[in-house]
Specification:
Shape: globular
Radius of gyration: 21 Å
Strand order of the largest sheet: 4-3-5-6
Distance between the termini: 65 Å
Structural class: alpha/beta
Amino acid sequence: MNPYGPAVENLIDQFQALPGIGRKSAERLAHYILQSSSDDALQLSRAIEQVKQTVRPCSVCFNLTDEETCSICSDSRRDPQVVCVVELPRDLMAVEAAGVFGGRYHVLQGRISPLEGVGPEQLTVDALIRRVKDTPVTEIVMATNPTLEGDGTALYISNVLDDLPVKITRLARGIAAGSVLEFSNREVLADAMRGRQPF
């Protein structure tokens, strides 16, 4: 039982339920809220409420947006023929931060994980297939995470799209520029060797 009472304990529990927040961090956040002004605390509350009421998946790519269509799908300067497939909206943000991709996206809303009970039907794979069939998509860039589940998801999607006239590519993997071989792990070196290119 918290010495400050059940209200503070409940606040700590709510913060602790957030990913990456342990008990100590949750207590620090709770104390921050308690010490901040009522206006500041209520602004945070209103921001959370607004996000929950207005943000939803984009009707085209399933990225998060507060409009029917997200700003990326609405941007006429982006190439609609090249679609980068990612697992989650945060993966989309990571690719965008690199500043080198000029196409559009498709967010799967997860990855196939039989152990967690997630199959293709829980993802937006069917919407991706319809998108490839109904729009002039010429290339799908598979940018799922390089994990067992991510690679399995990419393989499943490439098999499903195999009969359609679309080129399927995968993000290159391997040794980053400026790194040293002796400090690279075995998987990175293996990916680099398998993905070697002409000099």
